[in-house]
Protein backbone atom coordinates (compact mmCIF):
# COMPACT_ATOMS: atom_id res chain seq x y z
CA UNK A 1 0.00 0.00 0.00
CA UNK A 2 1.43 3.39 -0.96
CA UNK A 3 1.86 6.14 1.59
CA UNK A 4 -1.11 8.51 1.32
CA UNK A 5 -0.57 12.25 0.80
CA UNK A 6 -1.61 12.91 4.40
CA UNK A 7 0.68 10.15 5.64
CA UNK A 8 3.54 11.50 3.54
CA UNK A 9 3.00 15.01 4.91
CA UNK A 10 2.92 13.68 8.47
CA UNK A 11 6.12 11.69 7.98
CA UNK A 12 7.91 14.63 6.34
CA UNK A 13 6.88 17.00 9.14
CA UNK A 14 7.86 14.47 11.81
CA UNK A 15 11.30 13.98 10.27
CA UNK A 16 11.85 17.72 10.01
CA UNK A 17 10.77 18.33 13.63
CA UNK A 18 12.89 15.48 14.96
CA UNK A 19 15.95 16.66 13.06
CA UNK A 20 15.41 20.28 14.08
CA UNK A 21 15.01 19.42 17.75
CA UNK A 22 17.58 16.64 17.93
CA UNK A 23 20.59 16.98 20.18
CA UNK A 24 22.59 15.52 17.30
CA UNK A 25 22.77 18.56 15.06
CA UNK A 26 23.81 17.86 11.50
CA UNK A 27 27.16 19.23 10.46
CA UNK A 28 26.87 22.52 8.59
CA UNK A 29 28.16 20.93 5.38
CA UNK A 30 25.27 18.45 5.09
CA UNK A 31 22.52 20.28 6.99
CA UNK A 32 21.37 22.16 3.88
CA UNK A 33 20.58 18.88 2.08
CA UNK A 34 18.03 17.64 4.61
CA UNK A 35 14.98 19.75 3.58
CA UNK A 36 15.32 18.64 -0.06
CA UNK A 37 15.72 15.00 0.97
CA UNK A 38 12.62 15.25 3.16
CA UNK A 39 10.58 16.92 0.43
CA UNK A 40 11.62 14.70 -2.47
CA UNK A 41 12.44 11.32 -0.93
CA UNK A 42 10.42 10.66 2.24
CA UNK A 43 7.73 8.65 0.48
CA UNK A 44 10.37 6.25 -0.88
CA UNK A 45 12.07 5.57 2.47
CA UNK A 46 9.08 5.52 4.85
CA UNK A 47 8.77 2.29 6.84
CA UNK A 48 5.23 1.71 5.55
CA UNK A 49 4.79 0.17 2.12
CA UNK A 50 6.99 -1.73 -0.30
CA UNK A 51 10.23 -0.62 -1.88
CA UNK A 52 9.45 1.44 -4.97
CA UNK A 53 11.86 3.08 -7.38
CA UNK A 54 12.40 6.75 -6.47
CA UNK A 55 11.34 9.66 -8.64
CA UNK A 56 13.83 11.54 -10.80
CA UNK A 57 13.42 14.52 -8.43
CA UNK A 58 14.43 12.36 -5.47
CA UNK A 59 17.41 11.01 -7.41
CA UNK A 60 18.54 14.52 -8.32
CA UNK A 61 18.78 15.28 -4.59
CA UNK A 62 20.42 11.94 -3.74
CA UNK A 63 23.07 12.50 -6.42
CA UNK A 64 24.22 15.76 -4.87
CA UNK A 65 24.06 15.07 -1.12
CA UNK A 66 26.92 13.99 1.10
CA UNK A 67 25.58 10.54 2.04
CA UNK A 68 28.36 9.72 4.57
CA UNK A 69 27.81 13.05 6.33
CA UNK A 70 24.06 12.57 6.60
CA UNK A 71 24.40 8.92 7.63
CA UNK A 72 26.81 9.82 10.40
CA UNK A 73 24.23 12.17 11.94
CA UNK A 74 21.00 10.12 11.73
CA UNK A 75 19.36 10.15 15.17
CA UNK A 76 17.69 6.97 16.39
CA UNK A 77 14.33 8.78 16.42
CA UNK A 78 14.50 9.10 12.63
CA UNK A 79 15.10 5.37 12.32
CA UNK A 80 11.68 4.84 13.92
CA UNK A 81 10.08 6.58 10.91
CA UNK A 82 12.23 5.66 7.93
CA UNK A 83 13.58 2.33 6.73
CA UNK A 84 17.35 2.43 6.50
CA UNK A 85 17.15 -0.57 4.16
CA UNK A 86 15.00 1.56 1.83
CA UNK A 87 17.47 4.45 2.15
CA UNK A 88 20.21 2.14 0.84
CA UNK A 89 17.86 0.88 -1.90
CA UNK A 90 17.00 4.42 -3.02
CA UNK A 91 20.67 5.43 -3.07
CA UNK A 92 21.46 2.42 -5.29
CA UNK A 93 18.52 3.11 -7.61
CA UNK A 94 19.78 6.67 -7.98
CA UNK A 95 23.25 5.55 -9.04
CA UNK A 96 24.88 6.04 -5.63
CA UNK A 97 25.24 2.48 -4.37
CA UNK A 98 26.29 2.12 -0.75
CA UNK A 99 29.04 -0.42 -0.05
CA UNK A 100 28.32 -3.37 2.21
CA UNK A 101 29.64 -2.77 5.68
CA UNK A 102 28.83 0.96 5.44
CA UNK A 103 27.05 2.26 8.53
CA UNK A 104 24.11 4.65 8.15
CA UNK A 105 22.67 5.55 11.53
CA UNK A 106 22.62 2.26 13.44
CA UNK A 107 22.08 0.26 10.21
CA UNK A 108 25.01 -1.57 8.66
CA UNK A 109 24.60 -2.38 4.97
CA UNK A 110 24.62 -6.16 4.64
CA UNK A 111 26.69 -8.09 2.12
CA UNK A 112 24.76 -9.05 -1.02
CA UNK A 113 23.04 -12.42 -0.92
CA UNK A 114 24.96 -15.16 -2.75
CA UNK A 115 23.68 -15.93 -6.22
TrEMBL record:
Domain Bifunctional inhibitor/plant lipid transfer protein/seed storage helical: 16-104
InterPro entries, alphabetized: Bifun_inhib/LTP/seed_sf (IPR036312), Bifunc_inhib/LTP/seed_store (IPR016140), NsLTP-like (IPR044741)
Pfam families cross-referenced by the UniProt entry: LTP_2 (PF14368)
Signal peptide: 1-27
Coiled-coil features, chain-numbered ranges: none
Keywords carried by this UniProt record: Signal
TM region positions: none
PANTHER family: BIFUNCTIONAL INHIBITOR/LIPID-TRANSFER PROTEIN/SEED STORAGE 2S ALBUMIN SUPERFAMILY PROTEIN, OS01G0800600 PROTEIN
Protein name: Bifunctional inhibitor/plant lipid transfer protein/seed storage helical domain-containing protein
Amino acid sequence: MAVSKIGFAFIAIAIFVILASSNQVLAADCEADVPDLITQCTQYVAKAGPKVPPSSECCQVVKRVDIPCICSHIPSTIELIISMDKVVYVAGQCGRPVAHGFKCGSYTVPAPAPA
